[in-house]
Design brief:
Distance between the termini of chain A: 69 Å
Helix content of chain A: 25-40%
Structural class of chain A: alpha+beta
Strand order of the largest sheet of chain B: 2-1-5-3-4
Strand content of chain B: 15-25%
Number of helices of chain A: 20
Number of strands of chain B: 5
CATH architecture of the largest domain in chain A: 2-Layer Sandwich
Number of domains of chain B: 2
CATH architecture of the largest domain in chain B: Roll
Shape of chain A: globular
Helix content of chain B: 25-40%
Largest sheet of chain A: 7 strands, mixed
Radius of gyration of chain B: 16 Å
Structural class of chain B: alpha+beta
Distance between the termini of chain B: 57 Å
Largest interface: A-B, 56 and 58 residues
Shape of chain B: globular
CATH superfamily of the largest domain in chain A: Aldehyde oxidase/xanthine dehydrogenase, molybdopterin binding domain
CATH superfamily of the largest domain in chain B: Beta-grasp domain
CATH topology of the largest domain in chain A: Aldehyde Oxidoreductase, domain 4
CATH class of the largest domain in chain A: Alpha Beta
Oligomer: heterodimer
Strand content of chain A: 25-35%
Chain lengths: ~775, ~160
């Protein structure tokens, strides 16, 4: 069957509603009798709770209830949140209570929930709750937290080390002993928070009669939320339904189940009415998970021809107060270091530290930008030290196209060996360099310098594990009206699943993508789901839709062949009907077939038929697919103010077969903007006592329209052999490599001062300082 | 006792009378009193611009205004931008054609800001549009497609004006 919609830049099905104000985000949910909640949060990074006085809040007219830990229903009261990704190497598994029990471990941790007639009154009530604290010493910097004698981030902890694991390929010490050159670099890498425009939110509704909990949530995976509610309350599968309609951005941290959601379930159970909580932006800065800090102390060994011999060092990752995501982030970072290069020997000591800050969560890229940054900066360093072109050093180290499948020698976060499935890294870089006229930039740079302008160019390559398992499902059902619906647990937050999944189904069913409705993230419509994270939906849900659509198509042909008394091979699907090829009058509509497939009341069903014109598929990828990209950035630096203007960014991205080029382009360009923020602006600051200092968009800067250049893109399509539609993930590739490319360009612009930059973001004051220091040296 | 005031506000051409608490934000009045949930609240401190509405023909942050300040005024929200027959406006259509929205949360503010700008500056440059959009944050698109939608709509609006002139 020819593909009419797969691969086409069709317009989005989501848009007409969103453009006319008819979206349905969580704060748009309004239930009869609904009450509103606000939280009382810890004002200290680490404290013992001596007592909580709720009397003044309860006395306020309009306040219905105030709950603290002791008021939570059992078994929630005696259960901490479950660990998402357990791993035997995690030695200390501290997870939060739904409301702090007797200790708070970061400033912003929820201590009590106030339920009132309006949000305004709930906030009034929260201001009247008095918490008496015994302030405890806090550990803030992860490098200091792991030293013996540091203040314990959690009472009862042995130390502040969640886990310490070795990562190893080959014999690194031997490689270093034989190396022609060894270079050391210490990296201070910061990534900010997600800062989706729609803050988190939940509406919880417990029906005491049916004993069922219905939750509307802004999430990245409604099924995972459902499982957590079941865990916390010991409920049966029929007792929890989680619905996620429109979501105003996620970028990782909306995939986490937060204590506030548990508290909302408790609240609706206690007061017997639906309760809504919508996070405000200040709470978002102090209570939504962030990615934050990694410190890498690394050495690289190369031979006389700049070929990599080995990489070794230590990575300290700031996990924050609770170990929610365990090893996930640093593990991805550690395995992403390798990128598109042959690295025969590698040794890393990976340490996850507990600190008294908000729990760490993956944010768009999820450790990959840091891994990429370390390797790409090392490549630049090698080039600088050996007097080689930066592109040439990379060229000498690329994995070649005939080496696929390429085994890196490590285990990835998906539990499988890191095995790159396909790609052509040398070609990808060359295309990017040609597009940007890399060879001639030096002349432009010298000309600019004569005018007193500091311009620079940088490049960066990344390989990105995408499409992580275990599965995502899709049920395709044709209603007895003939209308086609796809149900999936995938949970979009702007990624356009309602369009792309419809495109995949439409081709197999002989209809327009406009005739396929896609229902996402309602746990009542499909039993299992994982959600949308790790650039996994095209691979997982996309493949499931493909497989289920083929099954429905065959079912349609089978029933029609019986009714029309022809061979299924003579039938074709067209415009919502199936007809005998070449005999337009001989046809059955989907409506007729769906009606037939349901069966007739009281009549026996044919033995070889299952009821309904429907099929369900759960595609289970055997391993991740590996997308790749080459980014080139140009900047102009003002050495007086430290201001960096990103003037050009090119992304050459390979995410396998492209379902909708317009949508992939949107993901790449948007991802670049996120990376511009990570390279130049976004930094979450805390004082030495753990007080967050960046708690508004005036303190923490997101990239604006004038900060982001017009992004140019090139696409290489190397289909993945690992799934039936040949796709790889596209959601994070714009972000991952652009940070290193921008920093490389800034360093290049400052060549006259011979500075080295080993941090992200790089702020204007850092740039000014680097230049002043260099001038002092000269 | 809560301090309340009686207000009369015209929203998208429809007159509303209501008794509101004086501290009620205009954004909350639109969203939760009038159920016009198309206007979004993203930061409540006037930076993100998602809550931007038109007040007497000028864009304004509805999270930085009290409902009582809108007394006697005429407001346009995203729900009031489509054509009379319900079809998307030229700007709305340009957003769809250029993939100018992903999650859609910043979209109401983007549409209002650009509606105002294109009305007053029918032939903007890309740099001008980027400048005018600095009051509206978007985390999904990288702004490129929004700027493209603005330029596309401007060209179509000029053509449509020339046709009717």
């Amino acid at each position: 069957m020819g593909m009419k919609f797969f691969g086409a830049s069709v317009l989005r099905k989501e848009d007409p509603a969103l453009l006319t104000g008819k979206g349905r985000y969580v704060d748009d949910v309004k239930l009869p009798g609904m009450l509103h909640a606000a939280f009382v949060r810890s004002t200290y990074a680490h404290a013992r709770i001596k007592s909580i006085d709720t009397s003044a809040a309860l006395a306020l007219p309009g306040v219905v209830a105030v709950l603290t830990h002791d008021d939570l229903p059992e078994p929630m009261r005696s259960r901490r949140l479950p660990l998402y990704v357990p791993h035997p190497a995690i030695k200390q598994t501290f997870m939060p209570w739904v409301l702090a029990k007797d200790e708070t471990c970061f400033a912003g941790e929820a201590i009590a929930i106030v339920i009132a007639q309006s949000r305004y009154l709930a906030e009034d009530g929260a201001a009247l709750v008095e918490v008496d604290y015994d302030v405890l010493p806090a550990s803030i910097d992860p490098r200091e937290a792991i030293v013996d004698g540091a203040p314990l981030a959690q009472q009862g902890a042995v130390n502040n080390i969640v886990t310490q694991v070795p990562v190893k390929i080959g014999d690194t010490d031997k490689a270093f002993a034989q190396a022609a050159h060894v270079f050391r670099e210490q990296f201070a890498l910061h990534r900010g928070g997600p800062f989706f425009l729609e803050c988190r939110g939940v509406v919880a509704d417990w029906d005491a009669g049916t004993e069922q909990l219905t939750v509307h949530a802004s999430s990245q995976g409604s099924h995972r939320f459902k499982r957590t509610f079941i865990d916390l309350l010991d409920l049966a599968d029929n007792q929890v339904r989680v619905i996620t309609n429109d979501v105003g951005g996620g970028f990782g941290p909306k995939g986490s189940f937060y204590v506030e959601y548990g508290a909302l379930a408790a609240a609706t159970m206690v007061v017997g009415k639906p309760v809504k909580w919508i996070e405000d932006r200040r709470e978002n800065f102090v209570a939504t998970q962030q990615e934050r800090d990694q410190y890498w102390d690394m050495e690289v060994a190369v031979d006389e021809n700049a070929k990599l011999l080995g990489l070794r060092g230590r990575l300290v990752h700031d996990g924050g107060a609770y170990v929610t995501w365990g090893l996930v982030l640093p593990w991805i970072a550690a395995t992403s270091v390798i990128g598109p290069y042959v690295l025969p020997n590698y040794q890393l000591e990976l340490i996850v530290a507990m600190t008294n800050k908000i729990t760490c969560s993956p944010v768009r890229g999820a450790g990959r930008p840091q891994g990429c940054f370390v390797m790409e900066r090392m490549m630049d360093r090698i080039a600088q030290e050996l007097g080689l072109d930066r592109a040439e050093v990379r060229r000498r180290n690329f994995i070649q196209p005939d080496q696929f499948p390429y085994k890196v020698g490590l285990i990835f976060r998906d539990g499988r060996p890191v095995t790159y499935d396909s790609g052509d890294y040398p070609k990808s870089q060359q295309m990017a360099l040609d597009h940007m006229d890399w060879e001639n930039f030096r002349a432009k740079q010298e000309a600019a310098l004569k005018q007193g302008r500091y311009i620079g160019i940088g490049l960066s390559n990344a390989v990105e594990g995408t499409g992580l398992g275990p599965y995502e499902g899709a049920t395709i059902r044709i209603s007895t009206s003939g209308k086609i619906v796809v149900f999936t647990g995938a949970t979009p937050q702007g990624q356009s699943h309602k369009t792309t999944l419809a495109q995949i189904a439409a081709d197999h069913l002989g209809v327009s993508y406009e005739d396929v409705s896609v229902v996402t993230a309602d746990t009542a419509t499909i039993p299992f789901g994982m959600g949308t994270f790790a650039s996994r939906t095209a691979v997982n849900a996309g493949s499931s839709v493909h497989l289920a659509a083929i099954e429905v198509r065959e079912k349609i042909k089978k029933i029609a062949s019986e009714l029309l008394e022809v061979s299924p091979d003579d039938l074709e699907l067209k415009d919502g009907a199936v007809e005998v090829r070449g005999v337009p009058g001989m046809r059955k509509t989907f409506r007729e077939l769906a009606y037939n497939a349901v069966g007739l009341y009281g009549f026996s069903m044919k033995a070889d038929r299952d009821p309904g014109l429907e099929a369900t598929s759960y595609f289970k990828p055997e391993q991740s697919t590996y997308a790749n990209s080459c980014h080139v950035a140009e900047v102009e630096v003002d050495i007086e103010t430290g201001h960096v203007k990103v003037t050009r960014v090119l992304v050459n991205h390979d995410c396998g077969n492209v379902i909708n080029p317009m949508i992939v382009e949107g993901q790449i360009v948007g991802g670049v903007a996120h990376g511009v923020g990570n390279a130049l602006f976004e930094k979450l600051l805390f004082d030495e006592s753990g007080q967050p200092l960046t708690t508004s968009f005036a303190d923490y800067l997101l990239p604006m329209a004038t900060d982001v250049p017009h992004v140019e893109t090139l696409h290489t399509e190397t289909p993945s052999p690992l799934n039936p539609i040949g796709v790889k993930g596209a959601g994070e590739g714009g972000t991952i490599a652009v940070i290193a490319a921008i920093i490389s360009a800034v360093e290049d612009a400052l060549r006259p001062f011979n500075v080295r930059i080993a941090q992200m973001p790089v702020s204007p004051e850092t740039i000014v300082q680097l230049v002043l220091d260099a001038k002092g040296r000269q | 006792m809560p301090d309340t005031r009686k207000i009369t506000v015209t929203v998208n051409g429809q007159r509303h009378e209501a008794e509101v608490e004086s501290r009620l934000l205009l954004a909350d009045f639109l969203r939760h009193t009038l159920d016009l949930t198309g206007t979004h609240v993203g930061c409540e401190h006037g930076v993100c611009g998602a809550c931007t509405v038109m007040v007497d023909g000028h864009s304004a942050r509805s999270c930085l205004m009290f409902a009582v300040q809108a007394n006697g005024k005429s407001i346009t929200t995203i729900e009031g931008l489509a054509q009379a027959d319900g079809k998307l406006s030229i700007l709305q259509e340009a957003f769809q054609n250029n993939h100018g929205l992903q999650c859609g949360f910043c979209t109401p503010g983007m549409l209002i800001t650009l509606s105002e700008h294109l009305r007053d500056n029918p032939d903007p440059t890309e740099a001008e549009l980027r400048e005018v959009l600095t009051g509206n944050l978007c985390r999904c698109t990288g702004y490129q497609a929004i700027v493209a939608a603005g330029l596309d709509a401007a060209a179509k609006l000029r053509a449509s004006k020339a046709e009717h002139a």
